[in-house]
Amino acid sequence: MFYHVKELQYHAKPSQPDPVYAKKLQEILGGQYGEMSVMMQYLFQGWNCRAENKYRDMILDIATEEIAHVEMIATMIAQLLDGAPAHDQEQGAQDPAVEAVLSGMNPQHAIVNGLGAQPNDSVGFPWTARYTIASGNLLADFRANLNAESQGRLQVCRLYEMTTDPGVRDMLSFLIARDTMHQNQWMAAIEELEQTQGAVVPSTFNQEYEKQEVSYSFMNFSAGEDSSRGRWASGPSLDGQANFEYIPNPQAMGQNPQLKPGPEYIHGTPPLDMRVMQNVEKMEPNHQPYIQ
Fold it and tell me: One Pfam family from the UniProt entry (predicted)?
């Protein structure tokens, strides 16, 4: 069950309107790594959780907070759109909001959304559920969550640098701080799961069934050998099961594929000999072609 508290989790009030910045802010609302994505990702991970209750509870705690972040950003976007759209271009020299409209506001904010936020990214691409991951394997999911929070914090930090509005920066500084906590939270949960499940997902698959001779081989498939100096190329593997092996010139291990021609009803390209025979059949009966 959810219930709504009228007050926002944190202040979301700009110092002045800025419709162009409202367009930029759409990215952390409806973009791939925006608040809508992590909100839906965490909600479904929590609802689908079959593990210990502490994990389900933790996931839904942060999922519910992300709903609050969606509300904060949507509110900020709506207030940044105050004063738009322009009615007279001559106002542009006098009204910063109107000037911003004329120089690059998202027209859908006015035409479609009535000066409000939309579930799209900063270039108008609609938010999609394909951005979300809820696999049922908590270690795999928590790693995806860590990536989402890492990319999200990066984007918020970039947006922080794109404005000087103290009200906007204040809200963004709060979101950045919460992303700091969320990254630490997922790293702590990952560390805890790795201690009981191991580092490789899924831990329940019998490793005897994989081609173990290449399980820990780092293969250099590019010019130069700079990659050989990495932690991944030598020493004990991170799962503690073997040592990394560096292979400087990996060789092909498979066959040279030769596919059979498709059946006639597919109407693909026939083999050369078939095309020659078809041409022969079309020639006059008394004509003797030379076929080498």
Answer: Mn_catalase
- CATH 1.20.1260.10 residue window(s) in the chain: 19-197
Structure tokens at 225: 């050998």
- Mean pLDDT taken over the chain: 89
* Angle, alpha carbons 95-99-101 (nearest 5°): 120
- For position 171, what pLDDT does the model report? 98
- Residues written for the chain: 292
Rounded to two decimals, the pTM is 0.83
Query: What six digits make up the tokens of 5?
Result: 């508290």
Q: Across the chain, where does the E strand assignment appear?
A: 217-219, 245-247
Residue 91 has pLDDT above 80, yes or no: no
Which CATH fold would you assign to the domain 19-197?
Answer: Ferritin (1.20.1260)
In this prediction, residue 212 carries a pLDDT of 87
The C-alpha atoms of residue 79 and residue 17 are separated, in whole angstroms, by 6
Tokens encoding 117 = 């936020």
